[in-house]
């Protein structure tokens, strides 16, 4: 069956679209607002028009990085919400006009891992920070006006008025949800809440410690609060995060810069008489993972890492400690959630007013002001800054 | 009902033979020692047989640091009978068959009551004391009256030893004692790791690094849980034949992998990695390999080996982030008094294979030969009989 044709329909196949995008041309330099060409979706792909997008620290990590897997010129951005503009062949899951969330986490639904309840890492489209579309080798849908290839980012590339996604990276959602809230489920909120609910399975009455009170850390707090954790200790170098954190359920605060001669883990071990039930590392620093591990409780303490560190970084642990103290160290991407199964469940909890999302959105701007959003995040002055397209 | 008559040595020190480690790495010396009577919460037991576990060898070689103490009575895997009991010891009488266990279980603390782990917060410590409740006080004295140190609250290389009740499990007298002694450490550690720590489910895939007694016991545990693929990794290809008796389906010898890393080979064999991997040697570098041999998204790595040189473990954070987990475990996550009787039962029902672990038997006096056999990789478990 030809593209877009059925039962004698003369609907023409999708054409390339010319639109605005914020292109990252050089590591660490302001993004360039320019017109680009977005090719039509291939089989099993979907082209969407972005409604709004936000900035996540992982975008910054790969914007600053000067070595692979960073690459330039690239369209960054991976937390967003959009509307389907056109679909490629063999796409039945969504149709033109559907409201969707793009997710960097692939969910093909078919492979051994997607079928297993234990894993959220699709093995058909293994997670990697790739410059390309996932299904077709070395294939990009973006070119600049000189015809040069622009690289994709995390299967999403949302810093563009239009983008192309594989159907494995698309989740159809209820269009009545306010876009500035819905887009948060495409990465940050799902990652944090998922880590507390799904990966750690925080129980009522637990003691939880969260290292790093950015969007992810605060989402973990929100998730832990909803699980009934009795103590949620937030650790950050920025004292203003405490007041903010309280809105998300943080009960106590430790400023890691003002611990005097003690290590943060010592302070926490003292506060908790021996360590927390769950420690979450939400910054992306191996030394912080080591601190988190050092203050999770012996016997059954779990340390969960969510932060994305520099490629190649190593976590070093004392072997006596690992063998003798019964603690578990685990990492998760996207909070351990399967995009297509779990996002709808989280959205339900939002709609029933369990999950509160207003407090995540601290700034709203026009897409053209994206470099201001970068500045705000680099200076630690925002949680989520929503960028609205035209 | 009258209490059974206690031994004539009740309340008195006993003179008996023990194999003493006087200096790191040197042959043990069999000498007469004196074993004091048990204090409150302690039990003096007569060892029937004991075996050598690699952790004994690690402690034997340790010549520096707070864990190195001399002279010392090593040994922590054994079976014995109760000779006399101290105050407040309930449920045990002379003649009861017991297993001493290095890992404590008080049964009363929050952790012992939780099903989450076998941690006992009440008695968790750094293994620095001689007795559980009396610090550096020792129940052993040599012929000149000098203190001899305990090992891991057991010290089974002696005809008699004194053990705290938190480290003792009463077992059925039906099980042959040499088979029972294996459950006091090695086999329980391995089977427990598959059963309790990993919770291996039917149809899983498993990789075991190091096919000594613990590794083979992991295989046995995985087999009993219905794992469909059990890959053994060892430098000694002879281990495959033995391993098959315990359920090994595949074998990898790292020296025959050419340029490839073990983890690459395993990932290829299993279409992306195993569900569970177990490190049963005690090498940080091997733990790293075991870690990346598991599937992303769900892989679990369990460390059972005691690091030989206290080397730090180093894991790539990206490998961890992709949904893997790692944890260490002592005594296979088992709560001794609860779980060992279950394993004894499983043996008596002919489900759990213990016989194949025993590759050698010697008299206690030949204990140094047992060390040689283990170091040369020729034995799995060598049973040392006290009275033969």
Automatic annotation (TrEMBL), chain A:
InterPro entries linked: ADH-like_C, ADH-like_N, ADH_Zn_CS, GroES-like_sf, NAD(P)-bd_dom_sf
Domain Alcohol dehydrogenase-like C-terminal: 216-338
Pfam families the record matches: ADH_N, ADH_zinc_N
Record field: catalytic activity: a primary alcohol + NAD(+) = an aldehyde + NADH + H(+); a secondary alcohol + NAD(+) = a ketone + NADH + H(+)
Domain named Alcohol dehydrogenase-like N-terminal: residues: 43-174
One annotated GO molecular function: alcohol dehydrogenase (NAD+) activity
GO CC annotations on file: cytosol
Keywords: Metal-binding, NAD, Oxidoreductase, Zinc
Gene Ontology annotations of biological process type: formaldehyde catabolic process
Classification via PROSITE patterns: ADH_ZINC (PS00059)
Record EC number: 1.1.1.1
Family under the similarity heading: Belongs to the zinc-containing alcohol dehydrogenase family. Class-III subfamily.
Assembly information from the UniProt record: Homodimer.
Protein name: alcohol dehydrogenase
Native source organism of the sequence: Microthlaspi erraticum
TrEMBL record, chain B:
Requisite cofactors: Zn(2+)
CDD domains for the chain: alcohol_DH_plants
Domain annotation Alcohol dehydrogenase-like C-terminal: ranges: 213-335
EC number per UniProt: 1.1.1.1
UniProt-listed Pfam families: ADH_N, ADH_zinc_N
Reaction(s) catalysed by this chain's protein: a secondary alcohol + NAD(+) = a ketone + NADH + H(+); a primary alcohol + NAD(+) = an aldehyde + NADH + H(+)
Alphabetic keyword roster: Metal-binding, NAD, Oxidoreductase, Zinc
Any one Gene Ontology molecular-function term assigned to this protein's record: zinc ion binding
One Gene Ontology term, aspect cellular component: cytosol
One GO term (biological process): formaldehyde catabolic process
Record-annotated Alcohol dehydrogenase-like N-terminal domain positions: 41-172
Domain of life: Eukaryota
Family: Belongs to the zinc-containing alcohol dehydrogenase family. Class-III subfamily.
Subunit details: Homodimer.
Name of the protein: alcohol dehydrogenase
Organism per entry: Microthlaspi erraticum
Lineage, opening ranks: Eukaryota, Viridiplantae, Streptophyta, Embryophyta, Tracheophyta
